[in-house]
# Entry
Amino acid sequence: MIVTIQPSQLKGTITAAASKSSMQRACAAALLHIGQTVIQNPGISNDDLAAIKMIQDLGATIQEEADKLIVNSEGMLGTSNEALTVNCGESGLGIRMFTPIAALSSKPITITGKGSLLTRPMDFFDTVLPQLGVHITSNSGKLPLHIQGPLAPAAITVDGSLSSQFLTGLLFAFAASAKEEVTITVTDLKSKPYIDLSLKVLTEFGYAIVNNHYESFTIKPLDTAKQKATIDYTVEGDWSGAAFLLVAGAIAGDITVKGLDVFSTQADKKILEALQDCGCTLSVQEKQIEVACPPLGIGGDGLKAFHFDATDCPDLFPPLVALAAYCHGKTVIEGVSRLAHKESDRGITLQQEFAKLGVEIILQGDLMIIDGGNGLKGATVHSRHDHRIAMACAVAALPASGEVTIEEADAVNKSYPNFYKHIEQIGALVSIFL
# Structure
């Protein structure tokens, strides 16, 4: 799919999409919960649909109703499936979270995926799962994974430097199966807010985990007598996708975004700090966020460069680059080392694709330096099959001097399938060619 964006001025109100981070964790918890779970406001992205399919493959049954899913499960420990294959699609969280959960079963399970997920390193499981009684073979640290449990919780130490998602998977698996108190020790944990979200979901499902200053996590046995038979969980609005909408308002208009929890533990809520620091017009209220260009004009004439640490929220790099491109001066973003194993090598991809738009980006160790405020030109860019690159280019195109064409623009389906429709609703001039 090819999408073209004409220079546009935005105005209006839009509601944020459902968070795939919240949705996928809800699916995992619903699978592990013995009983019924009602998931309100379910997501519809490719990653969300992959999570739904995974829990069905692992034994859950799902009934779809208006704006909710009703999930019934006997828990992974009760699954009677014979040898099976579970496909995670292109979801990094999916593979990292559901592998330890699937390992709770004593049945042989093959876990695979597609696209960029096939090249992402999964050595973590080769090292950790055997310590927990799980037999595993992989393709030299990559997919497919062949596992056979059951996983037995035990005191272990894990490396949290590559991704917090591996730890999330272990926390879910341990919470559902621990027969006595057990502790996971973590070194160099990154993306702590995502662990906060995992703990929040687990708590809502009745599990008890103690966070020892992010250095270790103590999992207590589940008190089934206190756990509700039916659990009602509402998926939060997505700060990751909404970050692109908020940046669009800051550089190209005057918009209101609803459906976001300003008290959320989602890491990408930190986008508000960058918006404050760059000097856009920003009003954060309990029910909505209003954001607009500063008075000096559309295109961010009054925006100023900022310094931002994205180590714990690396998914913010793409919208931050779109914002920084219109901020006068050199913006510095920390945390580039977190970008190598995404859908693309995002540091290099952002540098190359934004160069086509006339923006110079320098990668210097763990820093990204964006020379902004010089205006963007029309050009043809490529998503590199990365949903966040496609959205970043689309947002950056809004105040550009000419038309921007995005090739393989349907990459947004991974996390935000209604993205182009939503920006069009608030005034973006979008043309879609299938």
